[in-house]
């Protein structure tokens, strides 16, 4: 039971930590990679599903 709460705590912490990166912008030379970079932030969360 304690492990479940620890996992939830880690998920929330990683979600709040990664949300600060949503406001970062790539340089204009790499603007075509914006969609890929936005999706890469979601990939670690998919492992918890």
UniProtKB/TrEMBL annotation:
According to its record, how does it sit in the membrane?
Single-pass membrane protein
Question: Main subcellular localization, coarse class?
Answer: membrane
| InterPro entries per the UniProt record, alphabetical | PSII_PsbK, PSII_PsbK_sf
Q: What PANTHER family does the record tag this protein with? A: PHOTOSYSTEM II REACTION CENTER PROTEIN K, PTHR35325
Supply the SUPFAM superfamilies for this chain. Photosystem II reaction center protein K, PsbK
Q: Which residues cross the membrane?
A: 7-24, 30-48
Any Pfam family? PsbK
Cell compartment(s), UniProt: Membrane
Cellular component per GO, a single term: photosystem II reaction center
The protein in question is named Photosystem II protein K
Indicate whether Cell membrane appears among the record's keywords. no
Which biological process annotations from GO are given for this protein? photosynthesis
State the UniProt keywords alphabetically.
Membrane, Photosynthesis, Photosystem II, Reaction center, Thylakoid, Transmembrane, Transmembrane helix
């Amino acid at each position: 039971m304690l492990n479940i709460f620890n996992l939830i705590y880690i998920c929330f912490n990683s979600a709040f930590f990664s949300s600060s990166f949503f406001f970062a912008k790539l340089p204009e030379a790499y603007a075509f990679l914006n969609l890929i970079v936005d999706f890469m932030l979601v990939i670690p969360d998919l492992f918890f599903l």
